[in-house]
Amino acid sequence: MRYNSGTPTFLFTDIEGSTRRWESHPDEMRAALARHDALVRAAVCGAQGRVFKAVGDAFCAVFPSPAAAVRGALAVQRALAAESWGAPGPLRVRAAIHCGAAEERDDDYFGPALNRVARLLCAGHGGQTLLSRPAADAAADALPTGATLRDLGERRLKDLARPERVFQLVAADLPADFPPLRTLDARPNNLPAQVTAMIGRQKELARVRARLREPGVRLLTLTGPGGTGKTRLALQSVAELADEFAHGVWFVALAPIREAGLVLPAIAAALGVNEAPGRCLADGLKEFLRERRTLLLLDNFEQVLDAAPEVAALLEAAAGLKLLVTSRALLRVYGENDFQVPPLGLPARGATRVRQCRDCEAALLFAERARAVRPDFEITERNAQAVAELCAQLDGLPLAIELAAAQIRLFSPEAMLTQLRRCCGSLDLLSGGARNLPERQRTLRSTIAWSHELLDEQERAVFRRLSVFCGGWDQESAAAVLGQDRVLAALGSLLDKSLVRVVEADGAPRFTQLETIREFACERLDADGETEEFRRRHQAFFLALAETCEERLAGPDQQAWFGRLSRELDNFRAALARALAQRDADAALRLAAGLGPLWLKRGQYTEGRARIESALALAGGAPPAARARAICALGAMLNGLGELAAALARLEEALRQFRAIGDRKGAVCALTDMAWVLTYQGEMERAEAVTAQLLAESRALGDPRHHALALERAASVALERGDRQRSMALLEEALVLMRRAQDKLGLAILLNVLGEDVRSGGDFARAAGLYEESLGLSSELENPFWMSVASVNLAYCLIPMGDCARARSLATQSLATIHAIGNKRNIPPGLVLICALAAAAGKAERGAVLLGAAEKFLAEQGTVLVYADRGIYEQTVRDVRAAVGAAAYAAARAEGGALSLEAAVARALGLAAELDFGPKM
Fold first, then answer.
1. pLDDT attached to residue 920
2. Claim: this prediction has a pTM higher than 0.85
3. Could you count the other beta carbons within 10 Å of the beta carbon of residue 582?
4. In degrees, to the nearest 5, what angle opens at C-alpha 170 toward C-alphas 167 and 176?
5. On the CB side of 48, how many CA atoms lie within 13 Å of its CA?
6. Would you give the end-to-end CA distance of the chain in angstroms?
7. Using CA atoms, how far apart are residues 822 and 584, in angstroms rounded to an integer?
8. What is d(CA 26, CA 20) in angstroms, rounded to the nearest whole number?
C-alpha cells in the first residue's frame, strides 16, 4: 500500500528495556521477539498501515491518516498487553505518532517529519503512546470509542528544534499513568533551541555519546576549523545525554569572550552561581559542582585557551562533572580527549545520479537549506551532478554549504558552481596569514568571500562595519553606530544570505554573526581602513548607553532595561577594553562607573571591581567627576563582596571628591552606601550621623527616588535605635516619593523595611501583608535577593499567626536562594528562622545546632541581626533552652559553632524538610 497523495502519518514503536532482557533471557527473547514482530505487523496492517522499516525491535509504519495511525497504535498496545510472555516478562512498547510531509523513495521515507517522530518516541515510556500536536489535532474528531487524548503540555524534544505540544493516547483498558516524559524539560538545562533540524551526523553523534559515557573520559574536545559544525554536533550530543546527568546539561557560549578571566564568570552565569562575599569565584564553582552530576558544553574555546588550567581545576574538584568543549585548538591539559569533527559525507567522485546525491549528508543539507529560501527546490537528474560537485568544492563544510544554499534564489546549482569557481580564482583570499590555514578553512573563507562578492556596495559596507559588535546588536545600535539610512534593508539582505542571524529578545529582533563570519568581516574592515573609526563610534554609543544604566534600572521599565543592558554586556566590555587600550581615562572611568548598577544588579562584583580598578589605574586625563563616580562604584562592589572596611574607605574617598567638585547627587549616592555599610557593621552612632547628612543632601537634591532611599536608610537607623515612631514617619514619607518615582524595586525595599517596623510592634498580620506586597514586586522583577529577604520576614510573621506549614516552605526556598546567590550576610537570619520552626515542631535540640552556627557566622562576618530579628532570636533562644535544658543547649550550640557554612545550610534544609505541620496549624 502506497501513500502518494496527502500528508502521510507515521507510527514508530520500540521495546523498552530490550537489551536487559536479551542479556538475562537470550533464548526466550528470540521467541518473544518473533511473536512481537508478528503482532505489530498484524495490528498495523489491520488499521490500513504499512511497515516500511524494521530495525531490531523498532518498527516504522506509515498510515493514510492520523486516525488510522491511532487505531493501529491502540491495536499494537492491546495485542501486546494481552499476550503471555513467559520468562522475559511483559514486553512494553512505546509508540509515537506524527504527521508531516516526507519524501518517499525505494519503499522508504526521508525528511524532517521522520526525525520529529523519532525524537517523540525517545520521550516516551513502555506502554505509552504519544502524539504530536499536528497528529492530535487531525485525529481528535475521529478517535475510537473510549479513547481520549491527554494534553501533556509543550515540551522540548531532544532535537533542539521548536517545542512540541505533546499528547498521550488514553484508553480505559490500557495503563494511563507514566513517569515524566524524557524531554529536555525533565532535566535542568539552558540549551538553546535551534531554528533548523540537524541533518546527518548520526555516526558522529553516536561516537561522541559513547566517549562521554566512558568513565575515564571527563574532558572531550571537539576540534576542527570554523564552519565544520562543531557547535551543532556538541549541542545535539548533550541534549541526547540529558537524562544521564541529574543536575543538568549547560551551554556556555564563549564566542564573544576574548579574556581568559571571563570564562569562569561565564560558566557561573550559565549555572546560576553568584559570587559570594569573601570567596573567589573559582572556589564557589568548585563548591557548587562538587556533589553534582553535571555536563557542561563550553563552546568556542580557542580564543580563551589561557583559561584551560582553571577549567581543568573544576574537573579535579568535582568528580561528577564532565566537559564537552568545542575549539579550533586543543586545550592541552591533562586528561583531555580529542575528537576531530570531520566534514559531512560527500557524494562519490563523479556522481551524477539523484540517488547518489540523496544518500550523502552534504547534499541532503544543501537541499534542506535551499528549500528554506526556495520551497520547490529538489535534487533532480538535471542538477544532481552540479550539486555533487558543489558539495565537493565546499569540502562538505556545513557552514559553507549553508552559505551556498542561501543563494539558490539567485542561482541554479550549475550557475552557483560556476560563480564559486570564478570567485575563488579572482580573490586573493590567502594573504595576511591565510596560507597557513587548513585547506578546508581556506575553502570556507572562499565561500564567505563569494557570498560577500554577491552583496552590493551598501550591503558590503554594513556587513564589514557590523563586525565591531560583540555578542550581537539590535536595530537601534546598528543604526547609531553605522550611521546609514539603509542599514535595516541591508540587514534583511544579509539575513537572506546567511551572513547574519536573528534571534528574538523580549519580542524584538536581535542580530548576531557566526564567529567565523565575523572574523572575515573584521578583516574586510581592516582592509578598508575603517576599523578605528567604527570602533570609536561603537565605544561612543555604548558609553552613552552605559551612562543611562542608573536611570534605566530604576524607572518604571527597569526589568525590560535590565534584559537589554545584560544582552549588551559583551559590547560594553569591548568598549571598555578599547578605552583601556587607548589609555583614555575619561572614557574608561565613565564606562566603568556607568556600568556599576548593572554589575551590582547581576551580582558580578568581582568583574566590576577588577574593571573599575583597571580604569582608576590610568594616569591623568579624566575629569574629577568621572573618577569620583568610579571610586563610588568601586565602594559599592566591595560592599557586595563583603569587604566592608575597604568599601567604607572608598566611599569616604568618593564623598570627599564629590563635595570638592560640588556634585550633590554623587554625594547622596556615596552617603547612601555608607549608611548601608555602617548599619551592617552595627556602628549605629556613625550611621545616624551619616543619615543626617544624607537627608539634608537628598532633600536639597530634589530627586524623589534618591530622597526616598535616603529616608529609608534614616528609618532603618531609627528602628535600630528603637524609635519606631520616627521610623514610621520617615517610611510613610518615603513611600509617597517612591510611588511617584515608579521604582518597583525601591518600593519593594521600602515595604520590607516598613514590615520590619510593624513586626517589631507585634502586628504580625499587617506586617505579613506588607511583606506579601514586597515579595510580589520582587518576584515580578525577578530579583532573587529581595524575594528571599521578604520571604524570610514573611515566614517570621506566619509562625505566631499559626501558619507554620507555609513558613516552612518560605524558609526553605529563601535559605536555598540566599545560599545560591552567595549572600552570606543573610544566612544567619534564615538559620534562626528554621530553628524557630524546629522548636514549634518539637525538635528544639536539633534547631539549637543552627543557633550555634548562626552566632558563629555573625561573629565571623562582623555583622549584626536587624532590630526586628533580634527579638525573635532572643525569644527562640529562651524557648529552645527551656525545651532541652542548659547542658543539651550548650552542647548543641557548640556543635553548630563547628559547622562550615555549607554544612550548616545543608543541615538546616534537611531539618526543614522533615518538619510536617500539615496544611495549617
1. 42
2. no
3. 15
4. 100
5. 12
6. 67
7. 34
8. 10
The CA-atom distances, in angstroms, between 846 and each of 557, 837, 841, 881, 909 are: 46, 11, 11, 12, 12
User: In this structure, are residues 190 and 408 in contact, taking their beta carbons and an 8 Å threshold?
Assistant: no
Give per-residue pLDDT as tens, 806-863.
999 999 988 987 777 667 778 899 999 999 999 999 899 899 999 999 999 888 878 8
Grid-cell match 528562622, residue found: 833
Query: What pLDDT sits at residue 422?
Result: 66
Q: Which helix (H) or strand (E) holds 59?
A: strand 58-63
Q: Which residues of 341-377 are buried (b: 16+ CB within 10 A; e: fewer)?
A: bebbbbbeeebeebebbbebbbbbbbbbbbeebeeeb
Cβ pair 307, 263 in contact under 8 A = yes
- Strand stretches in 423-576, DSSP E: 501-505, 508-512
Residue 60, sorted as left (phi over 0), alpha (psi -120 to 50) or beta, turns out to be beta
Alpha-helical runs (H) found in 547-604: 549-552, 558-567, 569-581, 585-594, 596-602
3-state secondary structure of 235: helix
Residues paired with residue 336 on neighbouring β-strands, in sequence order: 219
DSSP letter assigned to residue 242? G
Low pLDDT (below 70) residues in the chain: 1-6, 195, 278, 349-352, 420-444, 621, 821-822, 918-921
Whole-number Å distance between alpha carbons of 153 and 131: 12
Q: What is the fold, at CATH topology level, of the domain defined by 9-184?
A: Alpha-Beta Plaits (3.30.70)
Q: Which residue in this structure is represented by grid cell 501486546?
A: 80
d(CA 556, CA 548): 14
In whole angstroms, give the CA distance from residue 770 to residue 748: 9
Residue 507: the pLDDT is 76
* 197/210 Cα distance (integer angstroms): 22
Closest CA to 197 of 124, 299, 118: 118
Q: Where are the alpha helices (DSSP H) in 662-703?
A: 664-681, 684-701
Q: Is 815 helix (H, G, I), strand (E, B) or coil?
A: helix
- CA atoms of 602 and 269, how far apart (whole Å): 9
| Nearest-angstrom CA–CA distance, 586 and 592 | 10
Q: How many whole angstroms separate alpha carbon 256 and alpha carbon 267?
A: 13
Pick the CATH number of 202-340 from 3.40.50.10540, 3.40.1280.10, 3.40.50.300, 1.10.10.10: 3.40.50.300
Q: Decide: residue 382, CB within 10 A, 0-12 exposed, 13-18 middle, 19+ buried.
A: exposed
- Model pLDDT, residue 883: 92
222 phi, psi to nearest 5 deg = -85, 115
Strands 219-223 and 321-327: parallel
d(CA 431, CA 536): 27
Helices 230-240, 202-213: crossing angle, 10 deg rounding: 60
CA–centroid distance for 720 within its chain: 40
Task: Let me know how long the chain is.
Answer: 921
Q: Which helix (H) or strand (E) holds 220?
A: strand 219-223
From CA 539, how far away is CA 418, in angstroms rounded? 42
What 3-state class would DSSP assign to 14? strand
Q: Are strands 501-505 and 294-299 parallel, antiparallel or unpaired?
A: unpaired
Q: Which three cell numbers stand for residue 587?
A: 572614557
Radius of gyration, CA atoms only, the chain: 32
Taking a C-beta distance cutoff of 8 angstroms, is the pair 9, 68 a contact? yes
SS3 letters across 94-137: EEEEEECCCEEECCEEECHHHHHHHHHHHCCCCCCEEECHHHHH
The cell numbers describing 582, all together, are 587607548
Angle between helices 531-546 and 569-581 in degrees, nearest 10: 120
Q: What is the pLDDT of residue 6?
A: 55
Compute the distance between CA of residue 252 and CA of residue 266 in angstroms, rounded to an integer. 7
Instruction: Give CA 85 to chain center in angstroms.
Output: 46
Name which of 393, 326, 395, 391 is nearest 365 in CA terms: 391
